[in-house]
Design a protein that fits this description.
Largest sheet: 4 strands, mixed
Number of strands: 13
Helix content: 25-40%
Radius of gyration: 25 Å
Structural class: alpha/beta
Shape: elongated
Distance between the termini: 15 Å
């Protein structure tokens, strides 16, 4: 789950400095020898096809990157500098945010509801203005859509009039935005093992799915220990949101509401 304010601040560079450092890092990335991951021999699991390009690099070549390790590059990521992986697991992580009823003061509830009603009203006006130019079949479909708009406006107007009688939530959970994360195990100086988790840079695409910017992730590998087996390390949200009988999409988020029960049965999720 994503929470605002948890991400580290990005470093800022003047354009000339950024371009120089990017050129230096790009050249290193292109010239350094790459390892070919072997699913049969390596202690590696998961699928990384849905993220940016990944280069697996022998930790023996890590010193080449030492002078540029602190460069906060937007398109190339040194995923695990000084922590060469001996075990790797890739997995898709659901990225979302959720505001529950206790997080929403009355004024914010009414503001969100009013914004949604205004959005529906605007859509209805635009659709009505096109009715006369539609063929009969499309007119029938449009009138059905207008009826749905009117029903939703009526429903949310009632909730806005009596906000204390309803429990609400707002979330972008149903947008189903996933990104690939890597969990890797590495060896400590003591000989023990530790785990780290990092998100990977994704390839950027336009609305049609065309690639607009390739991004790269460099994973340093311990070429000997990666060949050995290592022990594993070790819905509430979906179940919670499924309890709401009223759901309406609003751009990239969803408004949820339900008649407030006499006894809150969801205390365990608060």
């Amino acid at each position: 789950m994503d929470e605002s304010g948890t991400h580290a601040k990005r470093k800022h560079y003047d354009p000339q400095t950024y371009a120089r450092l990017l050129d230096q890092l790009t050249q290193l990335m292109e010239e350094v020898p790459k390892l070919r991951p072997d699913r049969n021999a390596w202690d590696i699991e998961g699928d990384w096809a849905a993220t940016g390009t990944i280069h697996f690099v022998d930790v023996a070549h890590q010193p080449l990157f030492d002078s540029i390790r602190h460069f906060d590059c937007r398109t190339i990521k040194l995923v695990n500098f000084d922590r060469p992986a001996v075990r790797i697991t890739f997995y898709r992580k659901h990225r979302y945010w959720l505001l529950k009823d206790k997080d929403l003061p009355i004024h914010q509830k009414t503001e969100q509801i009013q914004a949604y009603i205004d959005e529906l009203s605007h859509k209805a006006q635009m659709l009505e203005s096109k009715l006369d130019k539609m063929i009969p079949q499309k007119q029938t479909e449009a009138r059905g859509q207008l009826a749905q708009y009117a029903q939703q406006v009526e429903t949310w107007n009632d909730i806005m009039t009596n906000p204390g009688q309803y429990e609400m939530a707002i979330s972008n959970y149903s947008r189903q935005h996933f990104y690939v994360t890597v969990n890797y195990k590495y060896k400590l100086p003591s000989g023990d093992f530790a785990n780290e988790q990092e998100h990977l840079l994704n390839t950027q695409r336009d609305r049609l799915g065309n690639i607009t910017q390739v991004r790269y992730n460099i994973l340093f590998i311990d070429p000997l220990d990666i060949l050995r087996d290592h022990p594993y390390q070790n819905r509430e949200v979906e179940g919670y949101l499924n309890n709401f009988s009223i759901k309406s999409e609003m751009g990239r988020q969803t408004l949820y509401a339900r008649k407030r029960p006499d006894v809150d049965t969801l205390k365990s999720f608060e």
